[in-house]
Specification:
Length: 112
């Protein structure tokens, strides 16, 4: 099993959610986060004074999948979140040792 974690622009959430639904993903965890990469933030004007916004709003998605579905999920997120502009985000895939459904006690792929 794998955990796919993606950091995307907030306005792309609905597109990514629809793309994940099309590839059969049943559940995702969505968190509002802040960060920066190559964008390095931006400058805004407030009441005539400039100030730098270092951290930009982003959305973090966490999707637990079986190993055979990882590539489909990564491809769906990549295509749906892409704007061809800096700051589109990143996708991280890492191992998932155990999953337990609390209600039934099911484990691993049955719990997904």
């Amino acid at each position: 099993m794998k955990m796919v974690m993606a950091v995307i622009k907030p306005f792309k959430l609905d597109d990514v959610r629809a793309a994940l639904s099309d590839v059969g993903v049943q559940g995702i965890t969505v968190t509002e986060v802040q960060g920066f990469g190559r964008q390095k933030g931006h400058t805004e004007l407030y009441r005539g004074a400039e100030y730098v916004v270092d951290f930009l709003p982003k959305i973090k998605l966490e999707i637990a999948v079986t190993e055979d579905r990882v590539e489909a999920v990564v491809e769906a997120v990549s295509q749906a979140a892409n704007t061809n502009k800096i700051g589109d985000g990143k996708i991280f895939v890492y191992g998932l040792d155990n999953v337990v459904r609390i209600r039934t006690g099911e484990r691993d792929s049955e719990a997904l």
